[in-house]
Write a structure and sequence with these properties.
Layout lengths: L15 H19 L6 H12 L1 H8 L11 H12 L5 H9 L9 H12 L8 H12 L3 H8 L6 H35 L20 H27 L5 H22 L5 H22 L1
Helix pairs in contact: 6-7, 7-9, 10-11, 11-12
Protein name: Retrotransposon gag domain-containing protein
Keywords: Membrane, Transmembrane, Transmembrane helix
């Protein structure tokens, strides 16, 4: 059939077992697609050697096969299988398989695909699916997904894979939505009008630069208000027939209230100015205290 091409040679460098496995799979696909699968065994051997290349022909010549067996496609393939695939140490293969865990940044699909590849050389037979399932549960990197799998008493390999793909997709979608929200908030924040000095929240002395003009304009009103309220309080106390203890209680409460208010309002001041203002207010209320008594 036109458009069908055989695999490009058998590579004997590197991992020959993997090279042969890929070549064999591609060659079988080519035989079916090209219609050569129905050809005689001798013809298929010739097609195989032609596709495998010159080095493969030299290896073929070393096989201990009779003239008749050299025309048997299955026997030739079997000898190539033995030549490229050395005898495996099952203990080592299973050790490698059981050490396999999902690596950081590795997708769930890649993790599962590698497990399925590794299990082929472990000779688990009919237990391969259950062993892969167990390795997925033990080696998956998402702790919440692992807990979800452990809650299912009849977990199958297909179900474990489905849960893993769903969890990974949900996480990707959540990250996408979160990124969009952050971008939206950033655009909204950038578009907001800057607050005035009266509207802005107090900043720490270290992070906020000291602006003498802004502080003077802002607190001239505030200090005048505090002084006026203090005088109003003095007039109120003196105009009523109240006991000394009640006078002291009212004055103490007002002093504490103003102290905390001033503390918040002058948060933008540097240390020296805060100390001066504190001294002024303490002296002022001492004066009120003496005057009232």
């Amino acid at each position: 059939m036109e458009g069908c091409h055989p695999p490009r040679g058998l590579n004997f460098n590197g991992n020959m077992a993997d090279n042969w496995r890929r070549f064999k799979q591609l060659f079988e696909i080519y035989l079916i697609a090209s219609g050569n699968e129905v050809k005689s065994s001798e013809v298929k051997v010739a097609i195989l050697l032609n596709a495998a290349g010159e080095e493969a022909v030299e290896v073929f010549n070393t096989f201990n096969l009779s003239a008749e067996d050299r025309k048997d496609f299955d026997k030739v393939v079997n000898h190539f299988e033995k030549f490229t695939t050395p005898k495996r140490n099952v203990v080592v293969e299973r050790f490698i398989f059981n050490q396999r865990c999902q690596e950081e940044g590795e997708t769930f699909d890649v993790f599962v695909m590698d497990l399925k590849k590794l299990v082929k050389s472990c000779e688990f037979g009919d237990q391969s699916d259950s062993v892969v399932r167990d390795r997925i549960v033990l080696g998956v990197g998402d702790a919440s997904l692992q807990e979800r799998m452990l809650r299912e008493s009849d977990l199958s390999l297909e179900r474990a894979i489905d849960l893993g793909k769903t969890a990974e997709l949900s996480k990707i979608r959540a990250q996408t939505v979160q990124g969009q929200n952050v971008d939206f908030v950033g655009r909204r924040s950038g578009a907001q009008k800057p607050l005035s000095s009266r509207e802005a929240k107090p900043l720490s002395v270290v992070s906020a630069p000291y602006d003498r003009a802004a502080v003077t304009n802002d607190f001239s009103w505030f200090i005048a208000l505090i002084l006026k309220k203090g005088l109003d309080l003095r007039d109120f106390i003196l105009s009523k027939s109240v006991t000394v203890s009640l006078r002291l209680t009212i004055l103490l409460f007002f002093t504490i209230l103003v102290k905390f208010t001033v503390g918040f309002e002058i948060y933008n001041f540097n240390f020296k100015i805060r100390y001066i203002l504190d001294t002024i207010f303490i002296t002022y209320f001492q004066y009120l205290f003496i005057y009232i008594l």
